[in-house]
Specification:
Layout (H helix, E strand, L loop, with lengths): L1 E5 L4 E3 L6 H7 L17 E6 L2 E2 L10 H5 L2 E3 L4 E2 L3 E4 L9 E14 L2 E7 L13 E5 L5 E5 L11 E7 L5 H8 L6 E8 L12 E6 L3 H13 L6 E7 L8 H5 L4 E7 L7 E2 L2 H8 L7 E6 L1 H15 L6 E5 L3 H7 L1
Parallel strand pairs: 1-7, 14-15, 14-18, 15-16, 16-17, 18-19
Antiparallel strand pairs: 1-2, 3-5, 3-7, 4-6, 8-9, 8-13, 9-12, 10-11, 10-13
């Protein structure tokens, strides 16, 4: 079946068994996507002509009312006929498979590891601030982690990722029990369409929970390097103070107003749910952009409430949900 993208006019064929995002990426077109599990809604597009099989999508993430408007989640949808899809394509670099070596392994909190990766010297890896990589494990398994590193137009040969320990997790158990400096890993990247949009003058609200801080850090440091003058306010939420494991770094950006928020610990700062702190400070988000990353419940609560109660335009909410394998299984 043939897919035509609007407004670009790009076309590609979808082989049997593939969804629209898979086929589009394989054809060299940068469709928006993140979780690839039909949960984050980053890949949502409008079917203008033709019919699709919506795939295994939970009603929560694609209600019947959305289907009635022609909306589909393109990481799950498969064309049943030739289709015309309206979707906002994104910029980016085509992903590659790259070897790397563990150069640094720190644990700034009991359940957080900060891993420094060294790439081959001739790599010059290019990516956008906010994107992620997939580690390639045995038996074809993958695990996704956002890059906390500020990109460089000339490319980089060192990367940083932040890993929260999920007991029983295939990769995180390995990181916390066995991984050591000089170990070799392989990854595919860059991936995802969560990155800082530079074609706007709107003030920015950054929202992070837990290790969702990683891509937000990359964005903030990139904005400083590029001397982006738009106001940036960063809200970083955790249960306890130790969950804000790079607190000093977040305090150190002169162009960013930092608002830490704790939900389960009494202290002199803000308390409660982090997205509620944003709503208290920004009751009208109609003129802003929001970049949110972290636990799915935080991201989805922000998406829903910012739009319904704070007038944030739906297309100005950019997000990356940190889905564990258990999260993905629960949506199937």
């Amino acid at each position: 079946m043939k897919v035509t993208l609007q407004p670009s006019g790009h076309t590609f064929e979808v082989p049997e068994g593939q969804n629209i995002v898979q086929a589009g990426l394989a054809a060299g077109f940068m469709l928006p996507y993140s979780c690839r599990a039909g949960v984050c809604r980053t890949c949502r597009g409008t079917v203008l002509e033709g019919k699709v099989d919506y795939g295994m999508v939970h009603e929560t993430y694609l209600p019947e009312s959305d289907k009635a408007k022609g909306l589909a989640l393109l990481c799950q949808a498969k064309p049943l006929t030739d289709v015309v899809i309206e979707v906002r394509e994104v910029q980016g670099v085509r992903p590659r498979t790259i070897p790397c070596r563990v150069e640094k392994l720190d644990k700034p909190a009991p359940d957080v590891a900060v891993i420094g990766l060294r790439l081959p010297m001739n790599e010059n890896f290019r990516f956008l601030a906010g994107q992620y990589i997939d580690f390639l494990l045995k038996d074809g398994k993958r695990r996704s982690y956002s890059l906390a590193t500020r990109p460089d137009p000339a490319g980089v040969t060192a990367l940083e990722i932040h890993v929260r320990h999920t007991p029983g997790g295939l990769f995180t158990d390995h990181v916390f029990d066995k991984l050591k400096v000089r170990d070799l890993l392989r990854f595919e990247g860059p991936l995802g369409s969560f990155y800082l949009r530079e074609d706007s003058s709107k003030p920015i609200v950054m929202l992070a929970s837990g290790t969702g801080f990683a891509p937000i850090r990359a964005m903030c440091e990139y904005a400083a390097e590029k001397k982006i003058s738009r106001p940036i306010t960063l809200y970083w939420g955790g249960r306890l103070k130790r969950d804000l494991y790079q607190f000093e770094a977040a305090q150190g950006w002169p162009h960013v107003k930092f608002v830490p928020v704790l939900s389960d610990e009494k202290w002199q700062g803000r308390t409660g749910f982090v997205h509620r702190a944003v709503m208290e400070d920004f009751p009208d988000l109609s003129g802003h952009q929001v970049y949110a990353c972290g636990a799915p419940i935080v991201v989805e609560s922000a998406r829903r409430d910012f739009s319904a109660q704070c007038r944030l335009p739906a297309d100005e909410f950019y997000a990356d949900s940190f889905l564990t394998e258990a999260d993905k299984a629960a949506t199937a």
